[in-house]
Amino acid sequence: MAACQKFKYTIISVIFLLLSLGQNLSAGDLLLQKPNVYNSGKEITGWVMSEKLDGIRGYWNGEKLMTRKGVPLNPPSWFIKNFPAFELDGELWSKRGDFEFIQSTVLDKNPGNGWEKITYNIFEVPNAKGDFLKRLNKAEVWFETQKNKVIKIIPQIRIKNRSDLDLFLDAVQSKGGEGVIVKDPEMFYHTGRSVHVLKVKKFWDMEGVVIGLNKGKGKYATLMGSLTLKIENEIIFKLGTGFTDQIRKNPPPIGTIITFKYYGLTKNGTPKFASFLRVRKD
Q: Which residues pair with 58 in a beta bridge?
C-alpha cells in the first residue's frame, strides 16, 4: 500500500514538473538579437545609427507575426500583405510618445481600426546571409516589388565620429524620441545580448518582474508604496517612484513585467535612481 502511495506521488510530481517546464518554455523570449547599453568609451567610428522606436517589437517568422516572446499577434490580413517567406524583425509603431496606444492596438486579439495607424519598421533580417546592410537590403529589394504601405525600412546613418552620435541623439530626444541604436554593420547575424548592437540614451531603461507589493506610508498609507522587483542579473530591489496615484490604487500584480528608467548601477548591481515607466504586456 505504501509503495502504491509513493508511486502515486511520484507520478504527480512528474506531471507538475512537465507542466512547469512547458510554462517556462512557452514564456521564454525568442532567440533574437538584443542590444546592450552603450558607454562612452566604446569605439563606434564606422558603425551605423538609427532612432530607437518606442513601440512593440514584431518578429515575422516567414508565416506569422509574433511578439518578442513568441506570442502570435493578430494583425488584419491587409497589414501582412506581401510579407516574404523569410524572417523580418522590426518595431510596430505609430508615432513618438504613443506607446500605450500601440500596445493596446497590437496586442488586441481582435484587430481593430487602430492598426491603420501602425507601421512595421524593419531593423533586421534575421539569419539572412551577409553583413548587416546586406541583410537589410534583402528586405528593401523585396518590398520594392511587393508593395505594402505599412512597411518602412529604418534609415541607417554612418557614424564618422563621436560628435555625429551626440548630435543625432540630441535631435531625436528633442523631438520626444526614446534614444538611438548603434550597430556594427560588418557583423554577421547573431542572437542574444550583443556588444555589437548598443542602445544610447540620456538615461537607461530595464525590465523587471514584480515579485512583491509593499504598502505605502504617510499619504500613501492605504495605497501601494513600492514594488519589489527582480531584474535580469537576479538582483532584487524596491521601486518606489514614478507611479501615478491611479497606479498606486491599482498596482501591477505579481508576475507582471514592468519597465523602469535608471541612471547607472551601484557596485552591487542595483539600479540607481530608478523610476517607473510603464507596464509591459508583450
A: 90
For 104, which DSSP code? H
Task: Read off the pTM.
Answer: 0.76
Which letter, b or e, does each residue of 25-48 get, where b requires 16 or more Cβ atoms within 10 Å of its Cβ? eeeeebeebebeebeeeeebeebb
Range of the domain at 254: 204-280
Residue 256 grid cell: 507582471
pLDDT in tens, 76-133: 999 999 999 999 999 999 999 999 999 999 999 999 999 999 999 999 999 999 999 9
pLDDT digits (tens, 9 = 90+) for 211-239: 999 999 999 999 999 999 999 889 999 99
Q: Which three cell numbers stand for residue 104?
A: 493596446
Cα 277 off chain centre by: 13
Distances 183 to 42, 50, 163 between C-alpha atoms, Å: 12, 9, 16
Among the options 52, 69, 138, 160, which is catalytic? Answer: 52
Q: Is residue 27 part of a domain?
A: no
Task: Give me the phi and psi of 181, to 5 degrees please.
Answer: -110, 130
Handedness of CA 91, 97, 100, 105 (dihedral sign): negative
Say yes or no: 138 and 259 in one domain.
Answer: no
Domain count, the chain: 2
Question: Which residues on adjacent β-strands are paired with residue 198?
Answer: 36, 182
Which grid coordinates belong to 65? 507575426
Active site residue 42: no
- In this structure, what C-alpha cell is assigned to residue 68? 518578442
Say which CATH number the domain at 169 has: 3.30.470.30
